[in-house]
Amino acid sequence: MNLDNTWFTEIEKSNNFAFSLKVKRKLHEEQSPYQKIEVYETESFGNLLTLDGLTMLTDRDNFIYHEMMTHPILFTHLNPKQVVIIGGGDCGALKEVLKHKGVEKVYQIDIDERVTRVAEQFFPDLCTTNNDPRANLLFEDGIKWMQNVPENSIDVIIVDSTDPIGPGEVLFSEQFYAQCRRALKPDGLYVQQSESPLFQLNLLQSMHKTLQAGGFAMTQTYQFFQCTYPSGWWTGTLAGEGDLTEFRYEDAENKDFTTHYYNPEIHSASLILPNFLLEALA
Ligand code: SAM
Q: 105-109 and 82-87: which strand pairing?
């Protein structure tokens, strides 16, 4: 929703909150079978991708989200080889996963091929590894794809989906979580973007309960900054077995690839949560 034609404004209705980015011009607009896809050139954040009027990513700050939705779980897992990304059509998470040389295969399942094609055109830097021989980009509903995955076959599932509205809603359901639990190996791990602890605390609380109802013994939320998402304060929630705060610290410290936000200290710190959140998730 635009206040006028020089600003893009996203209004987060449930909190009567809005934020705006000054834009130079709109670069693209289309209605896919699933959502409205728009791209703007902004004054200070590079290109901006929105889906149904909601901010998905900007050139300037997407690195924080894509690094924090991938490296924590991949360094928490002892030896991730088979990875699945549900959503993630902009391919930023895929690029980060493929930095891990031990990963043998990544399936990326996004319901909307148009998001990936638009990303290839307007966010080429995120799509540089789409032709990696380990990458498999598929375009279908993640919940339907997960139904047919052989059980005990996946090491890591990353859900980089839109909010729990529209096509993304099913990806926050007990049915989907149970399917993921079945598809994961016994030591497999799951992570999902889990919204703002300030604006969507109820959703975060219900996610923990629903993940546990779906068969995950342990759940663990971690936090990071994401200035172009409502409240600027975002989370991911891990699910699996065992202590999800333990990770391969030395491997993270000696990693053979570059990151601009993630490091092992940031990983450890992201797991330290404020009192209200600890109480709400207890
Ligand atoms: N980082 C963003 C956020 O936190 O809102 C998400 C970015 S990514 C573009 C979100 C992707 O989820 C979209 O490309 C959308 O098509 C995809 N998606 C939504 N529902 C889906 C479903 N049921 N199965 C697979 N992909 C889905």
A: parallel
